[in-house]
UniProtKB/TrEMBL annotation:
One of its GO terms (molecular function) is ATP binding. Belongs to the ABC transporter superfamily. Gene3D superfamilies: P-loop containing nucleotide triphosphate hydrolases. Keywords: ATP-binding, Cell membrane, Membrane, Nucleotide-binding, Transport. Residues 2-228 form the ABC transporter domain. PANTHER family: ABC TRANSPORTER, ATP-BINDING PROTEIN. This is ABC transporter ATP-binding protein.
Length: 289
């Protein structure tokens, strides 16, 4: 469905925000993961045809969307990280305005989308008075107006409370059936339960493209749990990567990323997805060193 071939984006002569990214994606939820500044938003902006690559190709169903952006725009839904609303419009008026821009003339679809994102009871309320989570849900509703085949969502849970984040994740997971949903985040828990694939970026480069299960399998044998005396903790953390530390009854309960037994008494632990990604990152750093 979507193919990126050696896509790069340079700003000025020195800054390469996206560096030779090659990626093939079909239906499902793809978590685009990376730290702030990894190049995720730049890459998604190019997929959404808001920016042109400095080099490389982006193909949608075999058509080069850099040369022919309309080939994807009609079938694309996009929710940017900074999604604003018009202060004088109600949620319904906001949806009607975007429907007109997208050529959607079905009032029933507008009502159904407001129901989908649980805003139908707030349809006549000014959108400017909505909470952050409600605005993000309204943003998803407008992105779905044209029944897109590809939904691009940039940092959707930034600033949301835990309940709103859970509701938003569940909604995106449901939308992944029959569509391609690309969800960028630096919060692994946002995609842990819904992503069918993970694309991991670091400093503009794509460093991995795997299923969550494959990443967990690779991390087995590299994550450990241990209980150490507090006076031993300072020495231990100088030579291993401590993922988590908790004081309990005068001891430190640790989760550690290390390729071999990190200390006496440590036990191999089943990694979480976040721990697996951290272990992978540390392994790459050590190989580079």
């Amino acid at each position: 469905m979507l193919e990126l071939r050696a896509v790069s984006k340079k700003f000025g002569k020195e800054v390469r925000a996206v560096d030779e990214v090659t990626l093939s994606l079909g239906q499902g939820v793809v978590g685009l993961i990376g730290h702030n500044g990894a190049g995720k938003s730049t890459l998604m902006g190019m997929i959404a045809t808001l920016a042109r690559p400095s080099s490389g190709q982006i193909l949608f169903d075999g058509v080069d969307i850099v040369r022919k952006p309309d080939a994807i725009r009609r079938r694309l839904g996009y929710l940017p990280q900074d999604f604003g609303v018009y202060p004088n419009l109600s949620a319904l008026e906001f949806m009607q305005y975007f429907a007109a821009l997208k050529g959607v003339r079905d009032p029933v679809r507008i009502r159904r989308l407001l129901e989908l994102v649980n805003l139908h009871d707030q349809a006549h309320r000014p959108a400017a008075s909505f909470s952050g989570g409600m605005r993000r849900r309204l943003g998803i509703a407008q992105a779905l107006l044209n029944d897109p085949d590809i939904l691009v969502v940039d940092e959707p849970t930034a600033g949301l409370d835990p309940e709103e984040r859970l509701r938003f994740r569940n909604l995106l997971g449901e939308l992944g059936y029959g569509k391609l949903v690309i969800l960028s985040t630096h919060i692994v828990s946002d995609v842990e339960s819904i992503a069918t694939e993970l694309a991991i970026m670091r400093s503009g480069r794509l460093v991995a493209h795997e299923t969550p299960d494959a990443i967990l399998r690779l991390a087995r044998g590299q994550v450990w749990s241990a209980s150490v005396a507090e006076h031993d903790y300072a020495v231990l953390r100088e030579r291993v990567h401590v993922l988590q530390a908790q004081r309990q009854d005068g001891r430190m309960l640790l989760r550690i990323a290390h390729p071999e037994l990190p200390c006496l008494g440590a036990r191999e632990a089943e990694p979480t997805l976040e721990e697996a990604l951290m272990a992978q990152r540390y392994a790459v750093q050590e190989e580079a060193a």
